[in-house]
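Please go through the sequence and fold tokens given here and tell me how the chain folds. Record follows.
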Amino acid sequence: MAAGTDYILDGLIREGIDHIFMVPGGLIDPFLPALGRFPQIRPIVATQEGGAAYMADGYARASGKFGVALGIGGPGLGNMVTAMATALTDSSRMMVLSGEVALAMEGLGQFQDASAETFNDPILAAPVTRFSTSVDSIANLNHLFRRALMEMAGPPSGPVHLSLPHEALVGEIAVAHEPIDRALWHSHAIDRAMALRALLPLADEKPARIAILAGAGVEHAGAAQRLVALAERFSIPVATTLRAKGVMPEDHPMALGVFGYAGTRHATQALLGSDLELLIVLGSGLNERDTMHWSTRLVPRLGLISVNLSPKVLAQETGAGHAVVGDAGAFIELMFEPQIVASLEAGRTDRAAWHAGIRSGPRLYDTENLDSTAVPIHPTRIVGALRKALPRDGILLVDSGAHRAFAGHYFDSYMPRTYISATNLGPMGWGIPASIGAACARPGTRVALVTGDGCMQMHGIDIAVAARYGLPVTFVVLNNSALGNVWLRAHKLGPVPAELTSIPDHDWASFARGLGLAAATVRDPDEIEPALALAMAEAGPFLIDFKTEKNCPTPVYDYSAEVQRWSYHE
């Protein structure tokens, strides 16, 4: 027999989880001594429950497993709502555990009661999770814990929530969790008939000008290496979505770079060019940013084949006969079958020449800014220097703001799960705690975060957690005294909008030192590389407060042009 807390912690360990991110509170007191009984799982105490959940999200994205956040119900769970919504929109696997009052006390006015008799925490979490329920009996703990794991696995994958009344924590349970079969965590199945029907244009017309747009589904499938092999064998150029940046090494000869928001010129020319014959989309939801704002020019002659585990996504964006329900990795394997190989080989020479023509032109915009000597510092100069300073296998997280565009455009990524950003919901400050979770997930790997002063105002206090646990995170703060992207729009509307989107020039380096971090302030471009070298040599966290220019156009020119072209009436 074991207490409910022990069942849960043992179950998490059996599933390969070695960290739990939490904020202690009365409703989860039974977990505190229980954590002492399970040294295999390291508790990381966050400054606020929202930060704990963002840490769990970062842990999940960097590890490929799932993250776990623990806090009280009511106000604690309320603080985690945005984090759950962020994980939901990016299909990130996260388990949120919240404590609740004893069943016998529900609705009697007990402090922080958020049970079904008051707010009903499971209902609060339901819209932002794949599954949310209350374990209202210790007898239900085993099967509801297992169901939560499988709902989290998907498809589609995403966060889940279990509300745990006092009885579920201290009651005794006779069974132990049996780990979920690894084969069930991600379906590698595919509707073969649908796939072959969609590939008929290859067999019938043998098009030469084919391109691939790789989305997060390639990362989820663990198919990055096979994607590279496919591109190399048949000279197929590959673009990625911003969310999937890194699944195709961006210095590979067949890499086009990111398509969509902050994308490269090569990707835009290949995918929106009138000579593209067939586009194969692997595991992208085809949202606004992945489609260059639903560009009306994204219309290859033979159509767009879209592969996704979600029929709902396919029905929304894909034409008849071109949708394939299935795993991106399984589809890649189908393309190596003899009847498809012959078609791909037939167009290889012409395809290579077409791709060479695209690559002969410039890849990026405004590359002169990589060497800018301007003061205040141009953000591009910092991003370029950071790419050189961070090891090839280092992990970069990118927060929400104008810096997202600079990092997406100028920072090359070379492998999956080394460029991490909350691309769909994009809450400001997410990256600060998420980088801490990533550092916990990948010990021994250098982690860096590009964030802004607006983000620091929201979650800057979480850097204290990195200091407490000695985590090797380099916090790169692009401090432009403004809400960057918002200011770029608003200052054109007059002095009041400009003032409302401006921020006082806070001394973030002193703030960091006060919380136990090593830190530096950089105002001169010549100081960028030495400061980054110091940060990379530091055993623990390091924050650099870069004083940057705010009036710098972001490299989203192609995207902005398509926004101007688009009308929902068409």
